[in-house]
């Protein structure tokens, strides 16, 4: 028996390893969210006859495979171990994140879902046709790699977001109620400044301010000077890129948030204490403090609209992704009411919201990568 065990020790050990972790998967509760990766995890899909008839079993197989990968026991620990080992071995890329200069991390983004992107452009076009009298401003915001060219590692052939954005703008240019806003040029002018986080995919509050300034000037208003707003800083921020790469030598970021004039705010009609969730600054996902994270509908009432007209209430609706969460606070200086919509989490129909709110202007503002991948843009039409 001992000879048998010695002879097949490796195979037996590997089999026990698989058996133990397979058994553990049955007892470990399914997780909905990963703090380490800062994303929702795939839940166990339901196999139905109707789904098979529509799509075959391929869609189910992909979801089930993703479910197994996301719910594997001790997933976070294995990710951390893999990342640290590869960092020690001198790799310059891990888990889709590449290591740039001066501590910057970048996403490897060499292709996108062109089919979904085309659909989203079509959905936006149909929306513009449905509401020809509503002034709409549309802007696609670049990711850090598109702007911080001198920080990139050699040989990173990422997709040219600026070129693709220009093609989308050209497609939409015929809509008379639409204004196109391209902020890439102004961001590149400030590329040597702290406009993107090193360890996260979002821009900093200063980067967001530069985009806000371009936006407000395009809308015929005068932007507030950043130096006139009280600033607060939160140190020790490790963002989504760090969560994926777990680079041992990564330098933490600093988040700056500003005291803007807010009279009241609510989420889905429920009053909240301000537009920042200050408790989030004490957690790993510190960026979620802005606008209290991504919510279907947030209403903000300004206490300091510099463009207020006596006897009138100005309203703007912002359809956005998380990039806008650090930009929206600046809008309190220009509108009496701001309605922030995240289509990914929106329960009411856009048609009903527009009828109820009657906004003076609509802003559709997304990071390019998020606009290309978002499957909720179709909600614009309903």
Q: Let me know the average pLDDT.
A: 89
Number of domains: 3
Tell me the β content: 15-25%
Total beta strand runs: 15
**Cα-atom radius of gyration:** 23 Å
Sequence of secondary-structure elements: HHEEHHHEEEHEHHEHHEHEEEEEEHEH
Helix content: 25-40%
Shape: globular
Low-confidence stretches: none
Distance between the termini: 70 Å
- Tell me about the largest β-sheet: 8 strands, mixed
Structural class: alpha/beta
Strands of the widest sheet, in order across it, are 7-6-15-13-14-12-10-11
Number of helices in the DSSP assignment? 13
How would the blueprint of this fold be written?
Blueprint: H1 2-7, H2 9-27, E1 33-34, E2 39-40, H3 49-55, H4 58-70, H5 75-88, E3 93-94, E4 97-99, E5 105-107, H6 114-130, E6 136-141, H7 144-147, H8 161-172, E7 178-180, H9 184-189, H10 205-218, E8 231-237, H11 240-245, E9 253-258, E10 262-267, E11 270-272, E12 297-302, E13 315-320, E14 337-341, H12 350-357, E15 361-367, H13 368-373
């Amino acid at each position: 028996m001992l000879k048998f065990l010695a002879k097949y020790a490796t195979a037996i050990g590997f089999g026990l390893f698989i058996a133990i972790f397979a058994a553990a998967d049955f007892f470990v509760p399914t997780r909905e969210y990963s703090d380490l990766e800062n994303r929702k995890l795939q839940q166990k899909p339901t196999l139905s006859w109707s789904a098979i008839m529509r799509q075959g079993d391929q869609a189910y197989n992909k979801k089930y495979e993703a479910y197994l990968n996301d719910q594997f026991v001790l997933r976070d620990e294995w990710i951390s171990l893999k990342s640290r080992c590869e960092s020690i071995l001198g790799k310059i890329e891990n888990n889709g994140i590449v290591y740039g200069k001066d501590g910057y991390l970048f996403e490897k983004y060499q292709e996108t879902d062109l089919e979904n992107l085309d659909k989203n452009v079509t959905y936006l076009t149909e929306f513009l046709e449905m509401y020809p009298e509503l002034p709409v401003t549309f802007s696609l915001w670049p990711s850090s790699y598109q702007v911080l060219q001198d920080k990139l590692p050699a040989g990173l052939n990422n997709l040219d977001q600026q070129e693709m954005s220009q093609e989308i703008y050209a497609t939409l240019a015929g809509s008379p109620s639409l204004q196109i806003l391209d902020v890439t040029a102004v961001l590149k002018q400030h590329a040597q400044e702290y406009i993107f986080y090193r360890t996260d995919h979002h821009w900093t509050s200063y980067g967001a301010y530069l985009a806000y300034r371009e936006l407000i000037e395009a809308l015929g208003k005068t932007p507030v000077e950043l130096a006139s707003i009280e600033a607060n800083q939160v140190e020790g921020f490790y963002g989504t890129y760090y969560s994926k790469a777990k680079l041992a030598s990564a330098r933490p970021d600093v988040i700056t948030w500003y005291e803007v004039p807010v009279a009241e705010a609510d989420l889905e009609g429920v009053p909240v204490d301000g537009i920042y969730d200050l408790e989030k600054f004490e957690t790993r996902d510190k960026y979620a403090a802005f606008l209290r994270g991504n919510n279907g509908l947030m209403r903000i009432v300004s206490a300091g609209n510099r463009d207020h007209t006596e006897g009138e209430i100005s309203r703007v609706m912002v359809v956005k992704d998380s990039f806008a969460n650090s930009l929206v606070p600046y809008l309190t200086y220009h509108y009496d009411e701001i309605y922030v919509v995240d289509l990914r989490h929106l329960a009411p129909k856009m048609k009903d919201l527009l009828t109820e709110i009657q906004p003076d202007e609509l802003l559709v503002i997304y990071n390019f990568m998020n606009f290309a991948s978002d499957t909720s843009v179709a909600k614009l039409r309903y």
